[in-house]
Task: structure prediction
Amino acid sequence: MPELPDVENVRRRLERWLRGARITAARAEDRNIYRATPRSFAQKLVGRRVETVGRKGKWLRLVLDDELLVFAHLGMTGDFHASARDDGATERFERARLEVISGPKKSIVRYIDPRRWGRIVLAREDIPAWTELGPDPLTDGIDVADLRPKLSRRKRRSIKEVLLEQGVLAGVGNILATEALWKAAIDPRAPAASLGDEDIRRLARAIPWAIDRQLASLAKGDVDDPPKAGVARRSRIDVDDPPKAGVARRNPFLIYGRKGEPCPRCRTPLERFVLGGRTTTFCPRCQERRRR
DNA sequence: ATTATTGTTGGTAG
DNA sequence: TCTACCAACAATAA
Result:
């Protein structure tokens, strides 16, 4: 689920559910997700009010009164659901929950994560995982002058591998990198240091292009999963965003997951290979490595 | 049964 | 100290 656009989508829902709400109960029993004791989770959170719901890259940050911060990373399969009814039942793969009251309205916000790669961290100051993030392309924009030295410093790494480093640009994942490199017509294997100013400028435009595209698709309610995603999220009990039964799953991306289909630009069949352990789809013609 | 999956991290080797 | 590489984490679907 989660690259920058997905996490932004989650943030917007969390904001509706949580901003201004008072926490009446809290639970986190899974030590993979919340590393401290379950008792400390409840003890620190109950009674607090949620002031803001922020995001940088793939990290979420709730600011509570009493200057307490709640950081959340969704890993590969994390998501938040909300239910209005106080039925108390534990949802499948529920790993943590906040019970809140906002005015007269009570609700339960659940953290769901089948693979348990996500994290929730309580802190009084920003944690290194947050402070070490590079600029967020959506909220900070992309500064070519900042990006250029970050790319040229890497001697051997490919541009795609460097884009996946969260200290370069926060929130770019495998799908965004795939889509943006296609848009910018850059070979994913090209050494990051080999990109010229014109390449970097195209890339700086292509990344927000890919983000906006996916945000629009999420807002429209398109299925946000790639066709062969390992984990399907169905059983959502989400009062603000109910599931649409019977909607066929389809691939909302132009390039990712489309090996063998014609390139939307030049009709050459897209190819797929593994780079840095990650699936990479690209057009062998549009994204041909340039001579240097 | 085998392979694939949107992300990070910790160990190791250089 | 920095960089590169890779297994591991866990669940599910094709």
In short: The longest strand of chain A covers residues 94-102. Confidence is low (pLDDT under 50) at residues 223-247 of chain A.
